Amino acid sequence: MYQQMIFVNLPVNDLDSSKKFFTELGYTINPQFSNENAASVVISDTIVAMLLTKPFYTTFTKKEIADATTTSEVLICLSAESREKVDELVDKAIAAGGTASGTTQDHGFMYGRAFDDLDGHTWEVMWMDPAAIQG
Fold first, then answer.
1. DSSP E strands: which ranges in the chain?
2. What is the pLDDT of residues 28-42, one digit of tens each?
3. Would you say the pTM of this structure is higher than 0.70?
4. Which tens digits make up the pLDDT trace of 8-21?
């Protein structure tokens, strides 16, 4: 069965530092789709973050690149299998040089935290009780 994928393309200042950051979170780099201008970060079977050097990123758009450290361009939200996995990923991100973003959201059936990566892109990580999802 076909599974739709998402490829999130993000401009980065330092490709090598960004690759190191995301591998420290436990993700892998797919060398088949990576080179000196881009890194393909495999988050799951259906989610890939494409980290693009800013000069390369500009070949895909005529728009100005937002400075994600001062302007919100997008909020990326990843699901996690438990509260503990939310904390684990966000804590890894902070240890790898990211910064905590926002406040912890704890609604009982839903729990989330967020971090900003090295370029200021905000990544939310959330867990939701499967019983709450089913109704």
1. 6-12, 28-30, 38-42, 47-53, 75-79, 99-106, 110-116, 122-128
2. 999 999 999 999 999
3. yes
4. 999 999 999 999 99
Which one-letter DSSP state was computed for residue 64?
P
Asked if 17 and 11 count as a contact pair (C-beta separation under 8 A), the reply is: no
CA angle 64, 48, 17 (to 5 degrees): 65
> Distance of alpha carbon 110 from its chain centroid, rounded?
19
Rounded Cα gap, residues 101 and 83, in angstroms: 17
Q: Which residues of 22-54 are buried (b: 16+ CB within 10 A; e: fewer)?
A: beebebebeeeebeeebbbbebeeebbbbbbbe
Residue 100, Ramachandran bin (φ over 0: left; ψ between -120 and 50: alpha; else beta): beta
